[in-house]
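We emphasize that the prediction below concerns an isolated chain of 434 residues; any contacts that depend on oligomerization or on bound cofactors are therefore not represented. The input was used exactly as deposited, without trimming of termini.
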Amino acid sequence: MSIIQSRFIRKISSSSVIRNSFIYVFCDGLNKAIPFLLLPFITHYLTPADYGIVTNYNVLVQIISVFACSCTAAALPVMYAKLDKNEIKHYVSNMIFLNTAANAICVLVVLPIHQLIEETLSISFVYQLSVLVLVWFSGITNLNMLLWRCEEKPWGFGIYQISQSVVNAMGTIMLVIVLLLGWQGRIYSMIITAVVFGLISIYILFKRGYIEWGINKIYMKQTLFFALPIIPHALSFWFKSGVDKILLTNMCSLADNGYYSVAITWGAVITMFLVALNNAYAPALYKKLAVFDGNREGTIMEQKKLVKWIWISLGVTLVFTIVACLVSMLLIFVMYPSSYYDSIYFLPWVMLGQFFYGCYLMFVCFVHYTFKTKVLGGITFFWSIVQVGLTYMLISWIGAIGSAVSAAIISAITFVFVAGYAMRVYKLPWFSYK
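Result of the prediction step, given as a token string:
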């Protein structure tokens, strides 16, 4: 073994970020491989229009999640780096209470507009209510998994994540392929999985002392102070990934929505890699930034190393995106029925958008760390609104492909603005790392 190889192996084994990144990538790879392997079989039992309905159901899940759990959960990794273990237990209990209250409010909002939702997304009132159940249980599971991530326990996180996918896949096989329940069977499987793992998560959190009675006004205010300003930020992702599907459904067809969604599923290869890296990167980054804050002058070399690592990561992500796009095109031809081949036209634009999303992830953590999320919400929300108009125009001009083109353009612009803001709110030697 050469000296260079030995040094490389020692560096991997000594770096928790690199080591945990590999574990997250491995576990997330298995997690994403399960639906990837399952999807070609499902497409033989679901038409593109059926798949479009399942996609619209997920769109509704995303929008409810923004208000019911995801924004509050985003505060946990930041607060974990700032509070002691006993304080974190109280903090998590208050987050569960807050998420429950938010979910109840969402129920009251859905009731008077359920007919509009049904006309827009082709989802009946009963399935709309099932979304609220799914989101609440998923929120509990998300908190449980976030704690494992913050504690730098990637195996616990990964095994739990994979277990959910296995149960979801087995449920889908039984309900869609064996019992032939169509798109309804796919949705039933998602609901059952969310409820089962939500209940297990409640038990785990209770045994670990994270569920207790009592409201702490300070923690509630801290969570809301963090979460409320980033609701526009979180909504921006829904506008980007949800409104385009609604426009495709109403301006083109459910089938076009299905084609686009298949392409996005393959784009999740990029997301898998990036989110896995971020799962290890974010907690370690927050600890490192806390050290920098305590000794700015004495950590200048470490600051430069961090910046260099970020720029190299962006280059690696670009190469990975290009390779993943080419391989995905080939596999769609090999694995899918010919009725889904139109998905390939969307794929390059989807992959490009995912690349810039990965670039965004590398920088947005700095904004979260500083709690200066108001401007972040303004940036992402503004450009998401622009994307809605751009998507409408491009679909009108060039057809369904316009949705993917619009998403890629706005993803690139959003990254540039967020990266610039991150560099401003947290000073590092961004362009001097030698």
